[in-house]
């Protein structure tokens, strides 16, 4: 495996775009302080970007939402871009996605608007450099934590980004992802949901609708959560003591429209929940643009755990 040496500024932001954030695997062990986890909204694409560049699990890379980002390289870099197709180009030449490429000194890497998906991930061999806050560099803008400056801010035009240089052969991960590992974000999302503690308190009609309706992603969606619009779900619980909320929790507020909670969610909540999306289903939802259709499918915890363990096993050796 490559060894890291001293970091050096080697990427300059020419145009920041709407939202580009530094994200490692997330901030854990601090929710009792009211601090949420952050981390990549699409864990699957984030993990593959690091894997392709030979980085171990947990290495920070850039999460680029809605595109519009332009960067110039200060030295030759080994990179990989996964996730959404944003028409990425280097010197106006299309960049192949889900594979390792060389980004040469002085060349401009540009992201346009999304063609499919919502968030792209840019990993650099060696990893981006930032000072951890509460054990993580994950950017959570609402809590002013993480990122390159420690305050959770998005990239701004003129920022200078440092990358650890590596000793040995750069990018000792695979050259490209297998075809069957690359998700097609143009297809409607079918999302695995693990039924939760309050599911028995929803009416029979609501449960039928919940799992037999194609829901639509609302415009009100961000890294905190995604609202789904469709038939009104009714729960017989009128009050509920606030409890901890996990990634992918599906809350149903009084208007009956589900809200799926993502990485920057609050740490507790008092709305009844249908259950929780699996981690990989939450990743898929994070790539859905407003007005796209999604469907919920009930899945056992055993099946979801087996699926997640299979996913993590792909990157086990790299994380050791």
TrEMBL record:
Q: Tell me if Calcium is a UniProt keyword of this record.
A: no
Which segments does the entry list as coiled coil? none
List, alphabetically, the SMART domains matched: AHS2
Q: Which UniProt keywords apply?
A: ATP-binding, Hydrolase, Nucleotide-binding
Query: A single Pfam family, by name?
Result: CT_A_B
Q: Could you tell me the superkingdom of the organism this chain comes from?
A: Bacteria
- Among its keywords, does the record have Calcium? no
Outline the extent of the Carboxyltransferase domain.
32-315
Classification via PANTHER family: 5-OXOPROLINASE SUBUNIT C, CARBOXYLTRANSFERASE DOMAIN-CONTAINING PROTEIN
Record protein name field: Biotin-dependent carboxyltransferase family protein
């Amino acid at each position: 495996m490559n060894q890291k040496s001293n970091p050096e500024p080697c990427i300059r932001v020419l145009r920041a775009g709407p939202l580009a954030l530094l994200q490692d695997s997330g901030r854990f062990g601090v929710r009792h302080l009211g601090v949420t986890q952050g981390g990549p909204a699409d864990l699957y694409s984030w993990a593959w970007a690091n894997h392709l560049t030979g980085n171990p699990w947990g290495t920070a890379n850039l999460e680029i939402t809605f595109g519009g980002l332009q960067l110039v390289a200060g030295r030759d870099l080994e990179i990989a871009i996964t996730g959404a197709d944003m028409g990425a180009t280097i010197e106006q030449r299309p960049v192949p996605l889900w594979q390792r490429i060389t980004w040469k000194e002085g060349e401009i890497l540009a992201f346009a608007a999304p063609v499919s998906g919502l968030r792209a991930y840019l990993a650099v061999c060696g990893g981006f450099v930032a000072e951890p806050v509460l054990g993580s560099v994950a950017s959570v803008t609402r809590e002013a934590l993480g990122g390159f400056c420690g305050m959770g801010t998005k990239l701004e035009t003129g920022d200078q980004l440092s990358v650890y240089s590596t000793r040995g052969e750069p990018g000792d991960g695979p050259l490209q992802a297998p075809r069957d590992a690359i998700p097609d974000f143009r297809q409607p999302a079918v999302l695995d949901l693990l039924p939760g503690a309050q599911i028995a308190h929803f009416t029979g009609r609501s449960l039928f609708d919940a799992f037999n309706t194609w829901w639509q992603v609302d415009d009100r969606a961000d890294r905190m959560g995604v609202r789904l619009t469709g038939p009104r779900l009714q729960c017989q619980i009128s009050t509920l003591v606030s409890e901890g909320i996990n990634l992918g929790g599906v809350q149903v507020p009084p208007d009956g429209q589900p809200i799926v909670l993502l990485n920057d969610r609050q740490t507790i909540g008092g709305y009844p929940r249908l259950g929780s999306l699996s981690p990989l289903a939450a990743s898929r939802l994070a790539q859905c643009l407003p007005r796209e259709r999604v469907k919920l499918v009930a899945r056992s915890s055993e099946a979801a755990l087996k699926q997640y363990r299979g996913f993590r096993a792909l990157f086990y050796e790299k994380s050791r």
